[in-house]
Amino acid sequence: MPYAAAAGAALGSWLLVGVPLAAAIALVAACLWRPSPLLVLVVFAAFAGFFGSKALEGLANPPDGPVEGWVTLLDDPRPLGTHGIRVTVRYGDARVEARAYGAVAARLDDALAGERVHISGTARPATSDWHRWRHVASTLNVDTVGDRADAAPLGAFTNRIRRLLESGAGSLPDDSRAMFAGMVYGDDRSQSPRLYDDFRAAGLGHLLVVSGQNVAFVLALASPLAVRARPGVRLIVLLALLAVFAVLTRFEPSVLRAVTMAGVAVTSAALGQPETGRRTLAWAVAAVLVADPFLIRVLAFQLSVCATCGLLWITPALTEMLPGPRPLRLAAATTAGAQLAVMPLLVAVFGAVPVASLPANVIAGPATAPVMMWGLTGGLGAGLAGEPVAWLIHRPTAALLWWVRSVAAASAAAPPAMLGAGGAAVVGAGVALVLVSRRLERARPLGVLGAAVVTVAMAVSVLAAASPPPGWSEAGGARLFRHESAVVVVLDGQARPRDLLQSLRLAGVRRVDLVVASRGGASDAHAVLALTDRYRMAAVVAPTMHRVPGARTVRSGDIVQVGTVDVEVVSDAPDLVVAVSLAASSEIPVVEAPGGP
User: Fold this and answer.
1) What one-character-per-residue DSSP string does 123-165 give?
2) By CB atoms within 10 Å of each CB, which of 177, 258, 275, 429 scores lowest?
């Protein structure tokens, strides 16, 4: 039954066929009279379609034109571009993405979800699928920000917890503090481009946001106290704790899945009919998709479900096959199971996944659980005690975060080996052999063969990794000139720091000798800060009246020599145009202009 319910909810959420409520209720009655998996599938598909079609109707008449009044923040303000913020708010019955810039943004920057703000601005209907599947009807350019009001009691309580955790972690270095905020309570707003890219290179990006494992750790912390209570009291306490954690982490899709799954598990246990993990997952998926059918199209929810499937189906098989002590086997199999399960989805969305993700997760994994558990307990104590006690409390936190950060940095510095569609298919075949071997008696050699197939596929991807040839190439909104003696990055477009770092890493760039900030504006400044954070020896040049920190001003006719490469400034009005040539060479110089070479 639970698998039919999950399949029906997924089908109805994807198709979004409007079903009359009366028809859905009639189907429920028929299912109660003569239950069957097929009827359960149809019932959940009908209700998912009904609620999904109602959600689409709610987007049909979005706010359009001048807007003034009180709005409720539904999440925390996030950076937008170089000097703006964006935040989802509720205006009347509609969800709206509010955008503010400059001094107006500064008045919203420190607000938190649940708080109410009086604003005015101009709304325009949202047109992108990204907005639609997040129930956002319009975008709102905010002109003024007026009075503010506190959140409702539950929201105010969770905001107080977040601020305590944040203040207690003030003694940690910037990157460690950003990691702490993401891993413990899901705040990823202060993560630097380099930190984000390093973790993505290592396949550790899921550690920078809250996920289902956080919910497991919360229940583990509460279980010693809850186990002493009577079953009814224990159920109420655990469900209340799950609700508070969901609000604290802003209802992240992966947390919604995990909280619902945990709620199903503790409720069934309290009723004396405990469910298996696989059936619990199926009921949770069905419940979440009926409540919000749009989640079927949100990648974070898809990854969460796939990772949990890997833990429930692949991990047990790997645990039996791997050699060594059981604790080590279980740790490695847990990480490998989740990573192998999400690999096909990641390849389908991003085209490739880093081969380093599997070993990096195995190496960094043991440090993450203590960070999350100590972060909630000791972190609250640090926030209440203040300095210098907070510094002492967070010494173990700092050491654990340093270890995870080092694993991510080492993965980013390694050769860029990626596993594409072909490699992922081979890995999938190997995983299938492992699962089949567990089903069949005396088929252990088949499982060993599957593990060997996975290992060989990853090894081939590492050996096949190669650096592009020297010369000009595109790199994340910028232009890259590479020579054996010098690497030059020319910022001649709107390069997003995260995309730029990723493109350079995937191109095998291990050093940058010169950065040319063609425009010298705020966008270039942010890109340069990200580049000099990773490539610390890079020199920077920019035009007059630039806003790039640490940049040297150059003018038309200047020549900057980097190794055996000469970079000549052909023009400096209004943007820098440079020509790159090889010293003592007869080759024709390559001219780099803002629009391309």
Assistant:
1) EEE--SHHHHTTTEEEEEEEEEEEEEEPPPHHHHHHHHHHHHH
2) 429
- In this structure, what token pair is assigned to residue 525? 């400044």
Task: Report the pLDDT value the prediction gives residue 445, as an integer from 0 to 100.
Answer: 65
Q: Alpha-carbon distance 447 to 443, whole Å?
A: 7
Give how far Cα 67 sits from Cα of 15, 150, 498, Å: 34, 21, 34
Q: Give tens-digit pLDDT for 106-144.
A: 888 888 999 999 999 999 999 888 899 999 999 999 999
* Vertex 183: Cα angle to 181 and 188 (nearest 5): 50
Separation between Cα atoms, residue 510 and residue 360, nearest integer Å: 20
pLDDT attached to residue 8: 92
At 591, the pLDDT band (50, 70, 90 cuts) reads: very low
Measured distance CA(154)–CA(339) in Å, rounded: 35
Give the pLDDT score at 443. Answer: 53
Closest CA to 47 of 292, 248, 213, 234: 292
pTM: 0.84
Q: How far apart are CA 98 and CA 87, in angstroms?
A: 5
Regarding beta strands 552-553 and 539-542, do their DSSP bridges make them parallel or antiparallel, or are they unpaired?
Answer: parallel
The CB-side HSE value for 182 (13 A sphere, CA atoms) comes to 22
Mark 335-351 as b/e (b = at least 16 C-beta within 10 Å): bbbbbbbbbbbbbeeee
CA distance 71 to 382: 33
* Residues 399, 330 contacting (CB under 8 angstroms): no
Q: CA nearest 345: which of 381, 379, 297?
A: 297
HEC sequence for 441-485: CCCHHHHHHHHHHHHHHHHHHHHHCCCCCCEEEEECCEEEEEECC
pLDDT for res 286: 94
| pLDDT (tens digit per residue) in 486-502 | 899 999 877 889 999 98
Q: Helix or strand or coil: residue 167?
A: helix
On whether the CB atoms of residues 540 and 515 are closer than 8 A, the answer is yes
Kindly tell me if the per-residue pLDDT of 38 is higher than 50: yes
Phi-psi region of 169 (alpha: psi -120 to 50; beta: other; left: phi over 0): alpha
Q: At what angle do helices 299-309 and 326-350 cross, to 10 degrees?
A: 150
